[in-house]
Amino acid sequence: MLEALPPGQAPRLLGPYRLLARLGAGGMGEVHLACRTDAPTADPYRMVAVKTVREDLEVDGDFRTRFRREIAAARTVDGPGVARLVDADADAPSPWLATEYVPGPSLAEAVVRSGALPIGTVRALGTALARALAGVHAVKVLHRDLKPANVLLAAAGPKLIDFGIAQAFEATALTSTGLVVGSPGFMSPEHLVGSRAVVPASDVFCLGAVLAFAASGRGPFHDDEMAAVIYRISRAEADLDGVPEELRPVVERCLLLDPDLRPSAAELAELLGGGFASEVFPWPGPVLSLLAEYGEAARSAGEAAASGAGVADLPTLGPVVPYSPTAMTTRPVLPEAPVERRRRPWGAIVAGAVAVALVATVGVVLLNRGGGQGGTAAGGVAGPTNGGPSASTTAPVTALSQVVLPYGGEGHGNDFGAAATDHAHRPAGWAPWTAEVEQGTGSCALSPKVLVCPGSGGAVTGLGAADGKERWKVPGRGEGLRSGPQYPAVVGDTAYVTGPDGVVAYGVEDGRERGRIPGPGTDWAVKGTDLRDGVLYSTYVNVRDERTGLATAVRLADGKQLWRTPLDALPEEPVAAAGRVLVPLGVVPVALDARTGKEVARGAADCQRFVVHEKSGSVLCTGSSAGSVTVLDGTTLKRKRSFGAGVTAGPAVNADGLVAVANGTLLSVYDLASGERRWSFPATLTEGAAQEVYFAGNRVLIAAKNEMVSVAVAGPASKYDYKQFEAKLPDGFTLQAGGKPLASGGAAFVSFPGGLVFSAYLP
């Protein structure tokens, strides 16, 4: 995972970065975890991965020219599915580049350590990667080395790495005519002809092989002999045994011999249809455990560097899959000739590939002799080996992850993202519906098929997301579960509900209990929860003295309580961000260390709810008296500025740093960085003051009871969209403020304490 820097190398400075630990190495260079020298941090999401060329290698002018060209291409690649390029210097004595650090394992490591992924996860994985590829292809960039080792798993979803940069690090003449690029087992037939033959459809072929690996645990062209691997790729003879039947037709289309017959990346995303509105990707429990390990290791490295300790002083958090070179670069014995971009004579590729196989095999043997890093030959992990790690089957409760949760995900920013209005994310067969849940309900959590709604007395009900029909129900049990609300989340086929008795796991489809992690006991009522990197942070109030509180951190992968901190006042809901847990104590903002639970900062602002803008790290809070939004320093919690007045709903903050609040029925949007108001709009609400404000794609929505107003984020026009939900209310039912609305696929899901739950079109 992380290796200490060699003796005499720590600390090492490279440009504006301080190297913290070694992430991996190949034949041409190394990759290090680093942070800026002027902004040391223990937050993994503010760190970078710095790739350097080995100092003992001669770097000529041609290399630097190609390196600059690849850097320029990489700068054009952006989006949520790619690790963005942060900085680079092709003219340094040892050229280097810094990319966004992704605190998670590669897909190769995850499958080797945890086994093949569930079909739902593979669909979501494929959809995300296909969308990322479509964006890359749109700016005229090819990946050319898409394989499991170049797919990193983050909490919010997969990220592609090494867009053209990997080639520059693995060969000094990589882009020369006639070179074979890619990795054995995950190359396309075009890769065998040479780099000039690679087209967007080649990336799709490689992605098909990656999805087969993720779904079955082995590559579709895996063979003990490298020559056989190359030959099978040249004929597109994929072995898809182990790939679920539901996925096989899509994977087969990706792996067709003729690139003209393969789907485009955008078409592949539509075929998979696995995307879903979520801030945290639906990874299975074992993968979430790996994410927690990586986040913990990076935080420890940052803290160790700040304290003067080395990474070697830190505990080892788990086995590491040996690093293997990221590209095979071998010159085939083929005559150079112009390559047509479409409709190639694919019979010629078969003949040429057989010749390439012999050269490629020799190249792989040479790489293995001198690598010294272990791993498989020249390009990623082919699949689990005999005696290797497999998926865990002993954990009492798998780790927790969000699908669509209250507050719109991490940071509690009430931002449901573009998926909120994208109809592709709507539950299949959905139509507006109304349901009534016995024993009431608070906030619900939405999975692709089931809306999970905890009620009073420990009751939990699963409603069909498409029609609102009851799928299952767990009746209330025990006095302990009657104290305080319960908080839900869903990942994969498991729903997790947090109450005073702890965390209980239920099957999403049938409601059967799958396990539980004990809570603090019947003297405590849950006030709120937040999830970060596989750890559930909770706050409780003492129901006996009603003056004190408690904060806890539980790792859901194994049920271990990481810490338990008494609080000297009644807490509100926690928010975990940047290695801290923010907790309002009464109206006093307090920050706890996410690793230890120790208090690290206390402010003086009037705060009863925290919102964190994940991109900038800014902390916002609203209080009990001032009625304004206060921006706090993320480290000291000291007040920086305030804006707004008489706020009754909000704030919501989106990724672009826009903050939305409502004052009665007046909707306002501010710029987070400056505090300046962008615009205000008097939105008509017949049910009184706004109760909720949130972002849904390019819209801002305010809601009050059973009505909602939608305004464009860019600002109101002469008209705006108003919607009163057409919910059929039970006799004698009175709407009141209750659970947090959810949004996905152009549909809203709203719950109320009296037991009413309905779903309707977003305005």
Structural commentary:
It contains eleven helices and 40 strands. By secondary structure, the protein is an alpha+beta fold. A six-stranded antiparallel beta sheet has the order 1-2-3-4-6-5. Strands 9-40-39-38 form a four-stranded antiparallel beta sheet, with no helix packed on it. Strands 10-11-12-13 form a four-stranded antiparallel beta sheet, with no helix packed on it. α3 packs antiparallel against α6. It is globular. The chain starts with 11 loop residues before the first strand and ends with a strand.
Describe the protein's topology.
Layout: E1 12-14, E2 17-25, E3 29-36, E4 48-53, H1 61-75, E5 85-89, E6 96-100, H2 107-114, H3 119-138, E7 151-154, E8 157-160, H4 165-170, H5 189-193, H6 200-216, H7 226-234, H8 248-254, H9 265-272, H10 285-307, H11 346-371, E9 433-436, E10 445-446, E11 450-454, E12 460-464, E13 470-474, E14 487-491, E15 494-499, E16 502-507, E17 513-518, E18 524-532, E19 535-542, E20 549-555, E21 560-567, E22 575-577, E23 580-585, E24 588-593, E25 599-602, E26 609-613, E27 618-622, E28 629-632, E29 639-643, E30 649-653, E31 658-663, E32 666-671, E33 677-682, E34 692-696, E35 699-704, E36 707-712, E37 721-724, E38 742-744, E39 747-751, E40 756-761
Antiparallel strand pairs: 1-2, 2-3, 3-4, 4-6, 5-6, 7-8, 9-40, 10-11, 11-12, 12-13, 14-15, 15-16, 16-17, 18-19, 19-20, 20-21, 22-23, 23-24, 24-25, 26-27, 27-28, 28-29, 30-31, 31-32, 32-33, 34-35, 35-36, 36-37, 38-39, 39-40
Protein name: Protein kinase domain-containing protein
Organism: Streptomyces vietnamensis
GO molecular function: ATP binding; protein serine/threonine kinase activity
